[in-house]
């Protein structure tokens, strides 16, 4: 039944329809837990068929012996879409009920999300290349024009010879069209044979993520597509050479991850995450790192802290925004009660989060539960006190904690 049903509500309905058994979803949750199952958030990943996995695995095996020096020859490329007002996070304010609305009481929105723009870009081991704003659709003819002007312009800018580079692109139809193939042949440029459904292998995805992060962190309001393009260009052109180098240095690890997964899904951490992991391990803190979509999550705690959290009669959640690294949105803390006679409230878990989305909170709680289970610690709080953060409340009330 569990293969047909993915959550307690579906199992409840299946029992009623197929077996005429009426039970509550809570009863199903308790039964699942007694049998060693736990609620988990489904991760968003590209659809991988058996054929996709085979091609990804073959690609990884073919390049498993490549060093960073080999990968430095590759010019990485991709297209991406950026949207105005991309965040749906709730914002709150204080006002008297009888007072009229002021500017500070309103979150401005634009119909249909304010529009979006489509861009093409590439980067090399020498730095980022040209960035192109694409008006309308992108077909093989326009793509070849971009290659002619902007790819070749990038190579000329960095004094790179076409015989010394390998060009990477995904398998989009415009990339593999006859006209496009002829262009590469005419210009004597080798194209890396890329496996399908493999954004986890392309380091440029992290550059797109960094642009999105910087746009959200801006103190100015982006009005219109032209202003959006201007801000994207500024962030792209300010990308440091070190960032490009570090991304390329992750390629051997990405290849190994695909091999370990037998061509299946992988989880590739961001460069900043790896830095924080190293710093945290130097101080003997247990750290879990993951990504919800493009949202970074870093959890700092210890096994001893989790044991205290387990026996605490209640949890207290709180958020801090000002004293955190700029690549994150907030520092989320989980406090517990410590001591027997002289009780005191202490922070036992620290979580750096890139956003306040419900998906991020779910990912955070799921990782915390998984790490606790590895330490043979069963976290099942009975009471949780939190502020009025809707995404956090919705997550807490979900199936992650059945006994609360």
Automatic annotation (TrEMBL):
Location of the Tc1-like transposase DDE domain: 116-217
Residue ranges annotated for the MULE transposase domain, each copy included: 315-399
Start and end residues of each Transposase Tc1-like domain: 8-65
InterPro entries per record: MULE_transposase_dom, RNaseH_sf, Tc1-like_DDE_dom, Transposase_5, Transposase_Tc1-like
Single GO MF descriptor: DNA binding
GO annotation (BP), single: DNA transposition
Full protein name: Tc1-like transposase DDE domain-containing protein
